[in-house]
Amino acid sequence: MQIALMIYDGSAPADSDVPRTGGVPLAPAGFAWPLCGCGGPLQFFAHLPVEDGVLSVFLCQNNPGACAFWDASSSANRVYLFPREELRPVAVPEAGLTLLPATSAIRTHVVTIDPEDACDEEGIDGAYDLARSGWKWEPEEGFGKQREVLGSLGGSPSYLEDDRLPVCPSCTGTMEFAAHLEEGITRETAMKLGGQLGYVFVCRPCREGAFLTD
User: What is the spatial distance between Cα 102 and Cα 97, in angstroms, rounded to a whole number?
Assistant: First the structure.
């Protein structure tokens, strides 16, 4: 079993078409910045190029704790799957918490995990946690450098019960897991997830997305 960890790789241009957290979203012409049910604009979290497009992740940070960005059915988060063609920087609203303080480049690092080590006694997949916990762990170190891990792409959702898997609002099918998201390496680069692990899901035929936390 292979896990594609997303590793912090320094700063990146705010409008670059590279895997990154923060910066400015790239979207097709006519895209309107998403709003939360509270009336404020969502904050742009991540630009994640994938095989069939770009995942663009937004969460509400205007009133932390009041808007349920952790709930897949909430208006306080959005996940879009855009086609790669003709993406352009989106105009940023003047008011509200819309952008992260810094833009962080992401590189991928593939870790191979023994499937027998990855599942607990109830059969729940913990491969991501295992891969993350081993990142840059050396015998002479007192601790690893797990905060460099910004999440993972593909694979299975770590320790997430089946009854929490989101359903596509268009076709009512169960969405496919796409990525884990971690808060980040520093306060300046962090995506504020309340100390929780984020899960990104997508329905590829409908190009619908969803987000939740553990």
Answer: 13
Which among 203, 193, 201 has a CA at the least distance from the CA of 45? 193
Strand positions, DSSP E, 43-84: 43-50, 53-59, 77-82
What average pLDDT does range 178-202 have in this prediction?
A: 86
Are 184 and 197 a contacting pair, CB within 8 Å? no
Q: Which amino acid is at 35?
A: L
Which pLDDT does position 105 carry in this prediction? 95
CATH 2.30.320 fits 2-213, yes or no: yes
Q: In this structure, are residues 45 and 98 in contact, taking their beta carbons and an 8 Å threshold? A: no
Contacting residues for 144 by C-beta, under 8 A, at least 6 apart: 133, 134, 135, 136, 137
* Domains of the chain by residue range: 2-213
Residue 203 has pLDDT above 50, yes or no: yes
User: Quick check: 31 pLDDT over 60?
Assistant: yes
The owner of tokens 């993350």 is: 132
The more confidently predicted of residues 172 and 191 is 172
The pLDDT tens digits of the residues spanning 90-107 come to: 999 998 899 999 999 999
Cβ–Cβ under 8 Å, residues 59 and 191: yes
- Amino acid identity of 184? G
CB atoms within 10 A of CB 130: 18
Contacts of 69 (CB under 8 A, 6+ apart): 59, 60, 61, 76, 77, 211, 213
- Using CA atoms, how far apart are residues 41 and 34, in angstroms rounded to an integer? 6
